[in-house]
Amino acid sequence: MPEKLRTHRVLVAKPGLDGHDRGAKVVARALRDAGMEVIYLGLHQTPEQIVRAAIDEDVDVIGLSILSGAHMTVFPRVLEMLRERGASDIKVVGGGIFPEEDAAELQRTGVARLFAPGTPTSEIVAFIQLL
Amino acid sequence: MDASRHEEEKRRWLEETYLASPEDGGPFITVSSEPVDPLYGPGDVAGLDYERDLGFPGEFPYTRGIRSNMYRGRPWTMRQFSGFGTARETNRRYHFLLERGQTGLSVAFDMPTIMGRDSDDPYSEGEVGRCGVAIDSVVDMQTLFDGIPLSRITTSMTTNAPASMMLAFYLVTGERQGVPFDQMGGTIQNDILKEYIAQKSWIFPPRPSMRIITDIIAFCLAEVPRWNTISISGYHIREAGSTAAQELAFTLADGMAYVQAGIDAGLDVDDFAPRLSFFFNSHIDFFEEIAKYRAARRIWARVMKERFGAKKEESLLLRFHTQTAGCSLTASQPENNIVRTAYEGLAAVLGGTQSLHTNSMDEVLALPTEKAVEIALRTQQIIAHETGVVNTIDPLAGSYFVEHLTGRLESQAQQYFDEIEAEGGVLEAIENGYFQRRIADAAYRYQMEIEKGERIIVGVNRYANEGERPDIELLKIDPDAEREQVEAVLKVRHGRDGAAAEAAGEELRRRAEGTENLMPAILDCTRAHVTLGEMVEVLKDVFGEYREQPVY
Known about the structure:
Structural class of chain A: alpha/beta
Strand content of chain A: 15-25%
Strand order of the largest sheet of chain B: 1-10-9-8-7
Oligomer: heterodimer
Structural class of chain B: alpha/beta
Shape of chain B: globular
Number of strands of chain B: 10
Strand content of chain B: 5-15%
Helix content of chain B: 40-55%
Order of helices and strands of chain A: EHEHEHEHEH
Shape of chain A: globular
Radius of gyration of chain B: 24 Å
């Protein structure tokens, strides 16, 4: 018997200026339906706001949805701020449109996993449960 | 066979003949999760009255088309939405598209421009020129249309919260080319209601935003009579996950809210209604989409005539642009997107669209390359010149299935209108989160249908090639574009007459605090090279900023 999976607390947010929140909302609901505690921060969040909320809410995972092309600016800054505040134990995952070489670099430099368009939510749930 | 006899016969046929062979591959539902019967016949269009409900093209209620001769008179406008990097790069793409037979331009702005922020604003970092072109001032707009005579081309601009500024930049660009305002034609999206509902690119709260819109309408009525002042958009509502019926109903409800706002601002409905146009999605469910466009024309004509008392024929016409569904495209096996887009484009044409953007196969991965956008444009040209569908008008009329769907969508839309009214109207429904909840529910249901295998997406949950990666070239945005653009906006601020810019900004503030039309002040700011971000800051000071209560 596998040991009972503990409840994960996940912060879902959309950094940057774009408002395409369909994916973030579908994923937030799927995580909630899988029994996780979800804090949905909504749109237009700065890295500062995201990291502050993640620490205040004591989450295990941050999930960021980015479709605007700003991923190479946003992810490194969130990771850096987590390190500065001694919160590197919080894992960061992302979803959106990322060129392959950008995705590879971000995953090499600390993003736990990036999910491409078309990923089933069940795969995202399974990945986060094992973090 | 009359309708009730047919109903009886259809039931008999179902039991005796149809169900004798097993079904395979269900559930049989549209992309909007609506059930579809195995067969349609006279009983399914029992209430349909040809003269009352269909009529002739160019005649009330315009179900069959808004023009008497439709594509036999003039093909739809082939208008590919495009913009990336700096104005200089995008200007090159515009020349490329025009040389290849495109007949209108459509500007895609980057996120900072859409949100009314200059390229050197801290919030813009990393987003300048990424998913559209960066426009900070009239100087950039002049570069964007360099060598393109604004007297001869019409331009659509996808801009909403800062639509008044983009319109002013465009008009002053024309003015500097020597083209008078009344000879320029084009469209601004300027549909702020659907921003609160779906696309979420807002700046100011709803009520001052509606005032800006009525100011634009009144100004254009007097000065830019060929301008389409609002493109009332269902596209983004659909992309956010709504059903076809929701797209139809929410868009038309927004349209009615704008008409009411115009009337409340003291305008005559027949003066401004002819300049309203619409923008719909063409999703992958072929017949449902065709029925949606037909229903939209019929509902709008009736509402304008009966509810708003419009007298002029042009006030009753629902003219629309269509874009194929970005959300139907897949990141895996991207070449398949060419095929999806072709079917979606065909549905838009069979539904009587006035202009069309066909998506490029790579748009799910990046902004399109020249190669991909050329295939997308050629797709439209093949529909227009090779398939023969333009030879006759509204060729699917009279199909039991299409007429049934058209009627069903019309009555579903009416149910949504009633729900919106029960919320207290469109603005109240936005504030209550009504639209946002409805759309999020539909989006989640759609995703779950895919995950349960009830909905097949080729190359995603069926016929996926393990370990295969997309093998197409992608457009790269020049990483120097942001730095160049930041330098350009700084140069504009340093190079202008500071006192004139200051005075123009003050006049804008004064008008915003009062009730005088904002447009003349925005035009003067534009001429004085006040930037987009500076104008928006003035208005934010007066109007405040909108904050959404997030729901999921």
